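Help needed: design a sequence for this.
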């Protein structure tokens, strides 16, 4: 494959990004049609249940697709789901060469689309920018591989690592621009998770303002069902879903009051904390692909201890609180040695006004051994 191939595949990856937040639990996919080094058309999977990227690009290309090259970020499907097989559309278009970034591990595809293209006489090449394609669709791949959603942890903190003052005050650590970016991220999530401590202390709505492409379910880890019926979460439960995750410690009367307000009571066995793995298994069964952890320290610590955090979005404000560290981003068991800690595999740093934003991903524990 040539340098020209690399240029067009990167264009296809950029096209795929336009579907973020709209296509889940489907993967984001982009496609580009070219001939003789010239762009003919481009397309992307724009919404769940809508036309796939290849079909969009081929529709725009029309008769110019005959004899052309198709670049696509994920193997064309070969089964009938919400749409007909994309492989058949590629074959019918007259495309003579297909460059694919990565094979689709979805069991109903899993190499079948590539085989169908090759059997029809189309030249097929696979693997160009495969790592970028895997990063693009890490949430889809994790859900497919483990049955659990992709977890992004978000927090804001001071220069000395505190997420609130000793009194619990946290409004506001980050600036208005940073907070607007958090709202943008919320608008792409299937669920937002907080602990009952955060729900009581902050009385948040946990909504995206303005609303994004998705409306996140609010999930409260509340083993004793302590969420106040007067809280913003409980009072808006009939409008936007609220799941109160409880254990056997929760009194029946409290659960009934919250259920009557529209909260879904998700009960787990045992008298301890809400079990992280079982919670994620349930969210995965509901096909939730992206979930954000917003607090507090005990909740994030519990997810970190179980290697269930995949990415971070951190805002560091240029302020120093001082005093004892009453509130930190993560508690939990932690690690005894620095050599045992998890290090970000890839990260970016940017300035948002005076705030420092760090975004990064961890080495995916769920992909070890593949």
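Sure. Designed sequence:
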């Amino acid at each position: 494959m040539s340098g020209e191939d690399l240029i067009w595949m990167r264009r296809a990856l950029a096209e795929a990004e336009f579907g973020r937040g709209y296509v889940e639990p489907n993967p984001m996919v982009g496609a580009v049609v070219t001939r003789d080094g010239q762009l003919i058309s481009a397309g992307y999977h724009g919404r769940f249940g809508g036309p796939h990227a290849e079909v969009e690009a081929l529709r725009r290309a029309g008769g110019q697709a005959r004899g052309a090259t198709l670049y696509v970020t994920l193997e064309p499907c070969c089964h009938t789901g919400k749409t007909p097989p994309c492989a058949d559309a590629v074959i019918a278009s007259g495309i003579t060469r297909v460059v694919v970034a990565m094979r689709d591990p979805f069991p109903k595809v899993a190499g079948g689309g590539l085989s169908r293209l090759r059997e029809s006489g189309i030249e097929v090449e696979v693997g160009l920018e495969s790592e970028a394609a895997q990063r693009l669709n890490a949430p889809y791949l994790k859900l497919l591989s483990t049955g659990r959603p992709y977890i992004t942890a978000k927090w804001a903190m001071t220069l000395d690592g505190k997420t609130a003052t000793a009194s619990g005050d946290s409004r506001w650590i980050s600036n208005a621009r940073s907070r607007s970016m958090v709202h943008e991220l919320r608008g792409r999530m299937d669920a937002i998770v907080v602990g009952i401590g955060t729900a009581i202390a902050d009385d948040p709505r946990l909504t995206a303002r303005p609303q994004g492409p998705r409306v996140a379910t609010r999930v409260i880890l509340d083993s004793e069902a302590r969420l106040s019926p007067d809280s913003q979460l409980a009072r808006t439960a009939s409008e936007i879903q609220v799941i109160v995750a409880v254990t056997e410690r929760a009194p029946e009367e409290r659960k009934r009051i919250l259920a009557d307000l529209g909260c879904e009571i998700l009960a787990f066995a045992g008298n301890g904390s809400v079990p992280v793995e079982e919670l994620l298994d349930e969210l995965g069964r509901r096909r939730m692909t992206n979930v954000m952890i917003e607090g507090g320290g005990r909740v994030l610590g519990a997810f970190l201890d179980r290697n269930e955090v995949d990415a971070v979005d951190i805002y560091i404000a240029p302020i120093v609180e001082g005093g004892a560290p009453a509130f930190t981003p993560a508690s939990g068991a932690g690690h005894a040695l620095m050599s045992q800690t998890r290090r970000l595999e890839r990260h970016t740093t940017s300035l948002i006004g005076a705030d420092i934003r760090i975004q990064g991903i961890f080495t995916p524990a769920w992909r070890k051994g593949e």
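Residues 3-16 form the longest helix (14 residues).
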